[in-house]
Amino acid sequence: MTEPARDEAGPLVDLSDVTLERIARLCEHAASSLDPDDMTDRPALRRALLRVQREGERDSGLLAGFSSHLL
Amino acid sequence: MSDALQQAHPPLHEFVFKVASRCNLACDYCYVYTGPDQSWRQRPRVMSPATIDAAAARIGQHARAHRLDSVLIALHGGEPLLAGPEVTERVITAVRAAMPAGTRADLIAQTNGVLLDRTFLELFARHGVRIGVSLDGSRQANDRHRQRAHGGSSYPDVVRALRLLDSDRYRPLFAGVLCTIDLENDPVETYRALLELNPPVLDFLLPHANWSHPPPGRSGPSDTPYADWLIPVFDAWYGDPAAATSIRFFDEIIQIMLGGVAGTEAVGGGVLGFAVVETDGTIEGADSLKSAYHGAAFTGLSVHAHSFDEALGHPVIAGSRRGRDALGATCRSCPVVGVCGGGQYAHRYRAGAGFGNPSVYCADLRRMIEHVAGRVHHDLSQAAARRPCSVR
Which residue in chain B is spatially nearest to A10 when comparing CA positions? Predict the structure, then answer.
């Protein structure tokens, strides 16, 4: 994955002119470049980063987890 | 199965076993008993030994044919514990015995918790069966809907079971707690009440609804009462540096934004990997389809006569397994579709138009996702800013 140019990253906080699709792209890129241990004060984000970085490549795209009425 | 067919119809990995077709609670929102599909009335109360063995053999056959590393068997109902410990143990041992070498069978029981006592917990501990429990929050919140058949609270028995499940001996079996959202309940109070029970995972479920039967408490399609309910919960959870409990719905959204894929049918638009086996051996599609119309999940196939490979091509199973290919033009052109995936398939239904619509929760999903995106983007940007040469 190539790193997007800085001018593509958009504002840090103001999302008013940033589409969700673009945010998702930036998040996806950040997921591969950030250390989850930088996220200790955001356990949910840290957990997601760990999971995506650990499992992302081997995921088939099939819903291998549970259906919504199960845990 | 040929490679081409396998690509068109990827194998199933999860099998929902309806070991008992009745329930000891009378929840007024239950999609099985109060929904349009009343097929439970014609079904045996408990899965027979012959059906258990046939279903186990079919799963083994499927695992062998597709060289599956693992399968998940979910003991479900009705209330699965009504089948009793003996039948439950027979299911577990039959499934494990039917697996080919190299395939692991994981099991989970999804229960209302009322009958979950030491006898069941010892049985599940012996066989490594994990347990999910349904509870809607505090006593007042829970008893709004989850009443016993003749009235009366289910809460004390469920909380007793959850305390036992959280004890050292059984904690490894604790899968989590499912909560169906009721807008009448305070969101953060509900979250805190559930958190007190220390579940490793919590999930908040949108009530099953569709365009012909809209969700309770919503006055129009652009209303977002469910997002308005969920956002304070998200903020309380996401902003808590000590939060150890996962909230599956939120975790899934964040994970998809980070480039991962969803693990449930609620968001993400992945291809469903499961089928249901009813107490009579009937193979059906996703249980949630029953909330759409009578017979929506029905295939006419049975483990007594058909393989799961035959079920893969059935329109009911294949239709709900098309993932994002099943989405209509409105969804395909939406900037949020990459995350919501069109929402849950059953929630897209409209009588006369089928399932090719946006979710009835479309506006809620969009607002929720945009809120999560804002928080996640802000934090990732700040983290990136602290690291030279990384992304903002």
Answer: B392
